[in-house]
């Protein structure tokens, strides 16, 4: 018998920017966490390049006893400098000012 895998999602709140106050179902990765960065492309009405709103995942809160993370939320990041690139631990720094690994 073949078991079907279910795609899991989590209702995640957004803070700041154009999505402030909204809660969206965000797909969870193989680790059970939502992605670190959530990008929302918005088409340009004049057929120009789309505007991309970037949100970063941050802890929603911590438990009192053990300090464990109690869920996630996304905060607006208007100064995104990653350019949508993945950063691997073995990658060389790009050398741009303000560009940090991590």
TrEMBL record:
Residues 1-48, 79-102 are annotated as: Disordered. It comes from the Bacteria. This is YD repeat-containing protein. It comes from Streptomyces murinus.
């Amino acid at each position: 018998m073949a078991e079907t895998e279910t795609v899991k999602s989590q209702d995640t709140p957004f803070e700041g920017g154009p999505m402030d106050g909204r809660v969206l179902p965000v797909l969870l990765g193989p680790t059970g966490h939502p992605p670190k960065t959530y990008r929302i492309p918005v088409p340009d009405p004049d057929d120009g390049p789309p505007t991309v709103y970037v949100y970063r995942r941050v802890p929603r809160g911590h438990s009192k006893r053990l300090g464990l993370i109690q869920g996630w939320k996304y905060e607006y990041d208007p100064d995104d400098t990653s350019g949508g690139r993945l950063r691997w631990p073995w990658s060389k720094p790009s050398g741009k000012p303000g560009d940090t690994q991590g």
